[in-house]
Design goal:
Low-confidence stretches: none
Distance between the termini: 100 Å
Strand content: under 5%
Number of domains: 2
Structural class: mainly alpha
Length: about 80
C-alpha cells in the first residue's frame, strides 16, 4: 500500500477515536447532576426585579402617551 494511504487511514482512525472519546465524555457529563450555583439564583432575582421595574416604567410611559394622544385627537371647541 501507498504510505499516504496508510497515513490517511491512521488519521481517520485518530479522528474516529477522538469523536468517540468526546461522545463518551459528553454522555458522562450529562449523567451527572449540575453543581449548585451560588450566582444563578441571585442573578435571576436581580434580572426579574429589573424586568418588573422596566415593565412598570413602560406602562407609566404608555399611559402618558395615551393621555396625550387622547387630548390631541379630542375635538376642540
Amino acid at each position: 500500500m501507498n504510505p499516504w494511504t496508510l497515513y490517511a487511514l491512521e488519521v481517520a482512525r485518530d479522528r474516529q477515536r477522538e469523536a468517540e472519546r468526546d461522545r463518551f465524555i459528553a454522555q458522562a457529563r450529562a449523567a451527572q447532576p449540575a453543581p449548585p450555583s451560588r450566582l444563578r439564583r441571585p442573578a435571576a432575582l436581580v434580572l426579574a426585579a429589573l424586568s418588573r421595574g422596566s415593565a412598570a416604567a413602560v406602562r407609566r410611559l404608555d399611559d402618558c402617551v395615551a393621555e396625550d394622544l387622547g387630548r390631541a385627537l379630542a375635538p376642540q371647541e
